[in-house]
Amino acid sequence: MWQALNLTPAAPPQAVSPLLEELRRSNVNGGAVFQAFEYEAHPVLDWFIQTRRLVPPAFDLATDFVTTKAVREALPELEIPEHLPQPLQAHELDVFDFEASLTRRICRGGAYVTFDKTYREAQLLVAPFVDALAPEKDWPWFGLTWLPWTDWFFAVAWDMTWIGLSPQKNLLWLLCTTDTD
Q1: Considering only Cβ atoms within 10 Å of each terminal Cβ, which end of the chain, N or C, has fewer?
Q2: Nearest-angstrom CA–CA distance, 165 and 62
Q3: Which tens digits make up the pLDDT trace of 38-88?
Q4: CATH assignment of 7-178, given 2.30.30, 3.30.1380, 3.90.1580, 3.40.1000?
Q5: What is the pLDDT of residues 152-166, one digit of tens each?
């Protein structure tokens, strides 16, 4: 299915820039990358979305998505292999946990640089990002893994990858962060 699915890199919504800038500022020895992809309807993917079977054993959206040729080509800095040595083991998040995990990541910062503003200001940075990528209330899907799934990651506490699906916008995306001390 993934070979037949047409994934096209999409320009990030404006709300992505401030969040990405903050993640890059605080992860001085690592970094942060984001890329969104528009996809065309596909009967197999549509079925898994409609039945909400997006994680193993039925389907592994996170692992299968990040190893597509389109993702590998759009994010060469991640050096994504064609086949991962192990699945991403992404944990499903609802929109509330997704927003909280990003806010927590902003507040905690990286190995040497932390967020010097309030928790509320971190929420105000994250909320437009979430709204832009998940405008629908009932359908977005988010996955989060802490695995260092490529050599870009440093295999320490700051390795995080969020993967998102917005079916009403036909959008798949990923956000990765890493840092080291």
Answers
A1: C
A2: 10
A3: 999 888 888 888 887 888 877 899 999 999 999 999 999 999 999 999 999
A4: 3.40.1000
A5: 999 999 999 999 999
